[in-house]
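User: My collaborator sent over this chain with a note saying "see what the structure looks like." That's all I know about it. Can you take a look?
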Amino acid sequence: MPQTHPAIDQAAPTTAAPAPPTELSLEERLAFVNTVMTMRLDEAKVAYEVNTAYIETEPVDLADVVTVPLTPTLQPPPESYPSPVAALLQRAHHRLLTGGWCSGALVDEDGARCMLGAIRIEARGDSGLEAGAAAVLLDAIRRTFGEGVDSVPSFNDAHGTGRTPLRMVDQAAGLADARGL
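Assistant: Without extra context I'll predict from the sequence alone. Here is the result:
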């Protein structure tokens, strides 16, 4: 007798074929890209910190970084300090702002002045007042930059721009006012 084999069911498989992937919306794609970029930036941040951990840095003085447009010729001079040395330093600061700053000479060919040149012209011949202002200015410079600064002219000439010297004259005016000079 012939052997009968059970019939093989040729019916369709019971699992349905996966649906074709739907395209992501713009918001979903942006969220995905944002996640990937955040991961990359985090990795770059860690790599940067590892690669620069051995480099010694000096703190940045924000007064050297944060600047505002200066239009000193359009602005009146600030109200004077009551003490004579502080008022002299304040006038010298204003003169440097309006007339310009120079290095290597008391006055250059354009009329710009160095720190000491501005003090001298604003002292109007009063050598005692001039000496007092120069002493307070040197003290203010040494407070900020250390005792290695020899003199006001050497400090002035050590800078390529007037930003730091002008800031120091302004700080010296405040120091003289605080001392009542």
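A starting point for your reply to your collaborator: The chain has a mean pLDDT of 82.
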